Amino acid sequence: MTQDLILQATALKKYFETGSSFTGKSSVRAVDDVSLDIARGETFAIVGESGCGKSTMARLLMRLLSPTDGQVTFDGQDVSNLKGKELKALRRDMQFIFQDPFSSLNPRMAVGSLVGEPLETHFPEMSKQQRRTKVAELLGLVGLRAEHAERYPHEFSGGQRQRIGIARALASSPKLIIGDEPVSALDVSVQAQVINLLSDLRDDLGLTLIVIAHDLAVIRHMSDRVAVMYLGKIVEQGPVDTIFSQPRHPYTRALLSAIPVAEHGRDRDRITLDGDMPSPANPPSGCSFHTRCPFAQDKCKTDVPALRDTATVAGHTAACHFFDDIAAAHPDAVVADSRPATEAAQSRFDLYQDAMRNGVTPKVRQQQ
Amino acid sequence: MQRLKLVHSDSSPNDVLLEVSDFSLRFKGAQKDLISHVSFSVKAGQTVCIVGESGCGKSVTSLAMMGLLPEGAAEIHGGGITFDGRHYDLKDQKALREFRGSRMTMIFQEPMTSLNPSFRIGDQIAEAVQCHGAHTAEEARARALAMLVRVGIPAPEKRMREYPHQLSGGMRQRVMIAMALVNDPALLIADEPTTALDVTIQAQILDLIRDLQAETNMGTIMITHDLGVVAEIADTVAVMYAGTVVEAGPAEQIFNDPQHPYTIGLMSSIPKLTGPRGRLATVPGMVPTAENMPDGCRFATRCPFAQDICKTDPKPQSFGNGHVAACHFAPLDTHFEACA
């Protein structure tokens, strides 16, 4: 491949042992044979529902967990078995943003020490004064003020705390940041602020982002490529626009059709999935989605489908035996752009957008 | 004084199930009202969505409606709540107990913490039956079982004997719904019922609530922060911000012709599933705390259109069909022009 790859996972597996020798051991296949290529500078998203293994995947890529089998390559170096100093160096290049800004910050540390801590670890040669300057710079980068360094996490709102978490992640000047549900604990208006911040930082600092999320609209907005996970496996992968306009795997189709859209009276063909995701300790035979798939046939119960190319665009793959037949029988829904119904309403949205973009109050119209 | 009415003028007062009128509430010792002049009403068979972000007072309002606010913590500062045509005193727990859990029930966001982990789910549902009316244990269990069938739980006899931890999140929320509906309530209050669930499970639960509502003609108040969910199920919508209803009206008008800058900001903040992916508009800053609540329009501190006049209480302006917005400058397009 000619692409400049920053991170590569090859046949990655993580099985967790459960039970004891008395009750009988079994293993949970949290991540089962996953391969990923992540190009430098792109935003890659991993999407799936609870229990699909996306957080385990993130922790494997970060080497917070060691894989049961398979390989992770970062910047051309196999990092699957790194230890000690080399692992610490890796930690500097790869950072993590956690979901919950309330539990991921030590409540007894001031913001200055929270952001300064990774500097101490990774750049021990820095003087106190240098560190303080750097902390102020980092806080400025994420939209906080230098004097916030004196305060404690409880004095901040959820969105501000997430900014502190991001400043902490940026402290070691990483090349890659993995965000595990970085905005899902935030309110929509604050969520939008953090999404904008992350995309600015990516562009300004030349970062590569891996975003783990369950919110498909957020993913569409932030990422270049998406992988959809179900029960520890990638079921579909491809460029974000293709995945959203021409989904091929029945699970992706169902997931997309299940999202409630904030628009009145939109008619949609909803594919409703029955039941819950099966337990990863006891995955179904064949295609792991066949128990909930509306298109399942006998072959799906026995044969495991492999990821294969679709006819849409290069790099779009799906793991389903019948995606061509399904696509032929159920053409892709053409989704119209969402716009408010009235022109007056549209002009109000435009006014708001303008005011936000320029940061100035719009002019009051003179009364005739 | 600002009064936002959701009731259509043509509706007869008889079919209004619950009416909250000019309701204000403050915590003991606070200088300002936490909930200020909130009004809305629910009719049989109707779904009202209260939408807003954390701290907007939507959950406090719902708890107040159920009489569940801790005694002594909050005081009602004006207005009141009428249910079934009867004005009720939120301090009179004895009177509240008569209809709470039977005529008016509530489901909560997190089904794991709202179910008792140490009782079988069948017993928990049966208990709700026995609390309201003289039923024998067998009758109560039979009704619990019938209810589990209605909410679509597979193998209900087996599930009756299971404990909450043995069920998945979606199943637990179905159990919560079964428990809430087992006494055939006239009104269901659902506080973020699908927030903790995955999208495919959320779709199942929303379908279930809709089906049960069509079957029983109950009124529903849905509290949520997700405008997508609102668009799916609401008949009328009340948008809350910092303890006030800033905009209310029929769902169609709220989505197609939003008037209040906060509603517009909220809608602009949502990443879209179609169309170009520009920079998201945001609502800058954050919700003021109860102590720092500004005078006049509470949104003024974050509003890109704010002027001096916004330091005074905005009068709600009507846009027909019960659509009202509390903004001095609604509609914005007639008061402002784009900056050059």
Automatic annotation (TrEMBL), chain A:
One of its GO terms (molecular function) is ATP hydrolysis activity. The keyword ATP-binding applies. It is a peripheral membrane protein. Residues 7-256 form the ABC transporter domain. This is Peptide/nickel transport system ATP-binding protein. InterPro entries: AAA+_ATPase, ABC_transp_ATP-bind, ABC_transporter-like_ATP-bd, ABC_transporter-like_CS, Oligopep_ABC_C, P-loop_NTPase. Its main location: membrane. GO terms for cellular component: plasma membrane. The keyword Mitochondrion does not apply. It comes from Litoreibacter albidus. The lineage of its organism: Bacteria, Pseudomonadati, Pseudomonadota, Alphaproteobacteria, Rhodobacterales. It comes from the Bacteria. Keywords: ATP-binding, Nucleotide-binding, Transport. Belongs to the ABC transporter superfamily. GO terms for biological process: peptide transport; transmembrane transport. It is found in: Cell inner membrane.
TrEMBL record, chain B:
It is a peripheral membrane protein. GO terms for biological process: peptide transport; transmembrane transport. The keyword Signal does not apply. Its main location: membrane. The keyword Transport applies. Belongs to the ABC transporter superfamily. This is Peptide/nickel transport system ATP-binding protein. It comes from Litoreibacter albidus.
